[in-house]
Amino acid sequence: MHAPTMTAQEIADILHMNIRTFQNKLPKLRAEGFPRHLPGTRIWSRRLVTAWLDQRDPDADAAIADIDPIAAARAELEARIGGRAA
Predict the structure, then answer these.
(1) Which of 51, 76, 49, 52 is CA-nearest to residue 62?
(2) Cβ atoms < 10 Å from Cβ of 57
(3) CB-hemisphere CA count at 13 Å for 35?
(4) In the 8-state DSSP scheme, what is residue 45?
(5) Is the pTM of this model over 0.90?
(6) Long-range contacts: 12-17, Cβ < 8 Å, 24+?
(7) Which of 12, 29, 48, 60 is deepest in the core (most CB within 10 A)?
(8) Along the 86 residues of the chain, how does pLDDT read in single tens digits?
(9) What does the H/E/C string look like for 2-36?
(10) In the 8-state DSSP scheme, what is residue 83?
């Protein structure tokens, strides 16, 4: 099971970029709805990051599977039944 939070490095890895690139792109990502880090920390909610990725590219099942096994199972089920489940 994954921790409920993510570091900047973990997020950068999922986005296939190095940490410096992630930090440089963070203002643009935030403008696109990327969640802010948790108050008083430099970590992010895994649930919020996963939701952001899911809403940006629901067909990117591989990236979602890397960070959220529940989302991966949901994506597999949706692929079997066709369309997005409500």
Answers:
(1) 76
(2) 10
(3) 22
(4) E
(5) no
(6) 14/49, 14/53, 14/63, 14/66, 14/67
(7) 12
(8) 678 999 999 999 999 999 999 999 999 999 999 999 999 999 999 999 999 998 876 555 555 445 566 666 676 667 777 655 44
(9) CCCEEEHHHHHHHCCCCHHHHHHHHHHHHHCCCCC
(10) S
